[in-house]
Amino acid sequence: MSETLNQAKKLILFTIVYNFVEGIFAIYFGAESNSTSLLSFGLDSFIEITASVIALWGLSSIDKDVDDKAEKMIAYSFLILILFIVVKSSFDLFYSSKPETSFYGIVIACVSILVEGPLAYRKLQLGKKLNNKIIIVEAKETLFCLNLSVLVILGVGVNYFFGLWYFDPIAALLMIPWLFREFREHNQNN
Asked: Containing domain of residue 119, as a range?
C-alpha cells in the first residue's frame, strides 16, 4: 500500500514539474500573441501546481483540517482565474483587441492532452485503489486541465487556421462554467 502511495506522490511531483514548464510556455506565448485562452490556460497551470502542492501537503499531514483548508484555497484560486477571464475577454471583444495567431499555442495544448490524459487516468486509478480523496481530487484537477486544452485548441486553432480572432476570447469565456463548477465542488465541503 505504501508503494502505491509513493507512486501517487511521484506522479503528483511530475504534475508539478510538467505544469510549471507548460505554464511558463503558455503564458509566454499567450502574452506574445495576446491570446486570452492561452493566458488563461497558463494561469490554470499554476492553479494546478497549487492543487498538487496542497495535495502533497495533505498526504503528508496527519491533521484532518488540512484537507478542508486545502480545498478552500484551491476553490478561491478558480474565482481569481474567472475574474481574469471575464475582464480580459470583455476588453478584447469590446475593443476588438485581436490576438495574433499562435502555432505554439496549438502545440502546447496538444502536448497537454497527450501528457495529462494518461497522467490523470493513472492518478485516478491509484486514488481509487488507496480510497484516497486527496489523490482523486488532485487527479480531477489534471482532468480539468485536459478539458481546458481542448478549448485552447478551439480558440487558438480557429484563429490560426481561419483568422476568426474572436474565437480566442470566446473559448476563454467557455472555460468559466467549468471553473465555476470546480469552485463550487471544492468549496461545498468547507
From this structure: 2-188
